[in-house]
Amino acid sequence: MKLDKLTPQEQLEYLKKGTEQIEKEDELLKKLERSYKTGKPLKVKVGFDPSAPDIHLGHTVVLRKMKHYQDLGHTVVFLIGDFTGLIGDPSGKKATRPQLNKEQVLENAETYKQQCFKILDPEKTVIDFNSRWLNELGSEGWIRLAAKYTVAQMMTRDDFRNRWEKQLPISIHELLYPLAQGYDSVFLEADVELGGTDQTFNLLVGRDLMREYNLEPQVIMTLPLLEGTDGVDKMSKSLNNYIAIEDTPKEIFGKVMSISDEMMYRYYELCTDTQMDEITAIKKAVASGELHPMAAKTNLAKLIIKDFHNTAAADTAEEEFRAVFSDGGVPDDIEEFRIKIGTEAEPLFKLIARSSAAKSNSDARRLMQASAVSVDDEKVSDLGFEIDYSAPGEYIVKVGKRRFIKYIVG
Q: Going by C-beta distance under 8 Å and a sequence separation of 6 or more, which residues neighbour residue 66?
C-alpha cells in the first residue's frame, strides 16, 4: 500500500491512530481533500522548546505522528522554540518555571536537531527557529499581539486558574508564552499543529489568533502523554522512568522488557508503527496463550531499537538479554567498582547505594528485603551482610532485574 496514494478519508484514518483528540476532524478532512485535489501538501507544525538536552521515547509519540504526515506526502515544520524556550512553557506547572539562558537553549537545540532525524525524514523536514519572527515583532508588535487576547481568556487555562485560586505567583511573561506559540502558527500559516495533551490550551490559542489575523484556523491534533517504565507517571528524566533514544540497544531492550504486560500494548500503539488491527491480534494471542507475553514484549523492544539503531543491533540486544536473564549469565561489559583492601567494613546495602546501583540507602534496603539482590548468584536479604574488605576478592552483585556490578577488593 502506497501511503502517499491514499484517499483523503483513508489518510484521515491513518492519521487518527494513537491520537487523543482532533479539533476539528471535519476541518482536517476538508484540508486533506483540498490537498488531494490541488497536490499542495499540508503544512504541519510542531514546536519543541529545548528545555533539556535529550529526547526520550515520550517525545517520539509526537515525532512519530509527524512522520505519519510525511508518509502521506505532507510537509512538517520542526520548530525549535529558541525564543519561547527563554520564556519557559507554563503548561502543567504549579509554580513559575526557571528561565534558561540563550546558551543553554541553543546547546539543547543542537542535540534536538541531531536526534529528531532518528524518526523524521530529513529531506521532508523543515527546521525553523521562532526567534526569526518573534525577535522581529518589537515592542509595538508585541503590544498589538497582546491586544488580540483577553485576561479572561487566559485565565480559563487550568494551571493559571489553579495558581490564581491558591494565590501562587503567575508572572506576566508566562501569559506571553501561549501568545508567542500561537503567533508561530500565524506566521507559518499552519494547517495542522500537533502536541501532547498538556499543550491543548496553547494549540487552541493558535486557532484563535489565526482567526484574528483572518487566516484559516489550524486543526489541532493532541497525542497522549506516554507513561514511563514504571507504568504510573509521565515519562520523565527526573523520575528516572524514561527510555532515551540515545540509549544503547542493550539499555533500550532491558528497559522495554521491564514494563508491565498491560503497558506493553500502549507502547506498541504510541511507540511503533504497528497498526491497530495487528495490536489487537497480538493482545488476543497473548490472552489465549497462543503467544507468550515475553515474546510479544521482545518483538516490541526490537521494533523500538530498529527505529533508533538497526536490525542487527536489535538482534544482538535480544541475544545478550536471553544469555543474561534467561540463562543466568553475566553481561560481558559488566560495570566494575573498586574497593581498597583494608577499608572499614560496611553493610552491603550501603555499598550498593555508594556505587549508585540504588538511589539511596533506603532504596537498597528495600531491594534486599524484596530478595532482589544476589551476591555470586546467591540471594542476600540480610541487611547486616558485609563483603570481606580484609582480603583481595571479586564479587558479582546483581541488583534488581538488570543491574550487575563487579566489586573488586584489592
A: 44, 46, 76, 78, 119, 120, 125, 194
Query: Rounded to whole angstroms, how far apart are CA atoms 218 and 393?
Result: 66
User: Domains in the chain, ordered, with CATH?
Assistant: 3-223 (3.40.50.620), 249-326 (1.10.240.10), 335-409 (3.10.290.10)
CB 14 within 8 A of CB 68: yes
What's the rounded Cα separation, in Å, for the pair 119 and 47?
16
Residue 90's pLDDT band (cuts 50, 70, 90): low
Instruction: Choose among 307, 303, 335, 310: nearest CA to 402.
Output: 335
The closest of 400, 51, 17 to 230, measured between CA atoms, is 400
**Is the previous residue joined to 24 through a cis bond, with omega within 30 degrees of 0?**
yes
Distances (CA, A) of 276 to 7, 173, 280, 391: 19, 42, 6, 59
Of 83-92, 113-122, 236-245, 351-360, least confident by mean pLDDT is 83-92
pLDDT at 329 over 80: no
In the numeric block, the cell 483523503 is attached to 8
Cα(250)–Cα(318) distance, integer angstroms: 8
The pLDDT of residue 146 is 93
Take residue 42 and report the three cell numbers written for it.
Answer: 499540508
- Least confident range of 102-116, 194-208, 359-373, 377-391: 102-116
Instruction: Give the bridge partners for 102, in sequence order.
Output: none
Look at the block and give the residue holding cell 492519521.
Answer: 15
CA 258 – CA 229 distance, rounded (Å): 7
Q: Which residue has the cell 488531494?
A: 36
